[in-house]
Task: structure prediction
Amino acid sequence: MAKTTRKMLGRRVKPAPAKKPPPSRLQLTEAHRELIFRLSDRTGLEPEAVIERALAGYAAAAAPGMPLHVEPAAKGRQVSGQKLFLSVDGRPEIEVDRTEFILGSAEGVDLRLDLPLISPRHARILWKGGRPVFEDLRSARGSFRLGQPVDVRMIESGDEIDLGGFLPIRFRLGETVL
Result:
């Protein structure tokens, strides 16, 4: 019998390497533990403080503006103090009345923008120290202010941020409620 071989047109497809599932808990090597304890002895800090300071330094360099500790926001809690309103593409204003307000195309977000270029969870508005903060949630097409990408930004009255580079969201801060 003659051996037959098949030929395929185009590129050869390499099988994707098998991905390892992420470990459920971080495992430190003995060398890492030794380094942490040496730094702890030298600085007089507890090992946990050494790790926290190292992570804070790394976070400041790798992701400026990213908080090291995220305070869990009660999604249903009303915001007290200053009021924030937003207008999507010139439409009537909507009051942002929650401590965490999600904008996106998915069901279940606080403001659903059912457009193909908007990510399911595109951005959110948080309150930090009584001031509203806009945060892009690593959306596929990003968020922009005056043509510049925005990751995290304190919201000022009159700010306009374009979701996906095309959908303008205008913000207005209202009067303080006593």
User: Anything to note?
Assistant: The chain is about 15% helix and 30% strand. Helices lie at 30-43, 47-62.
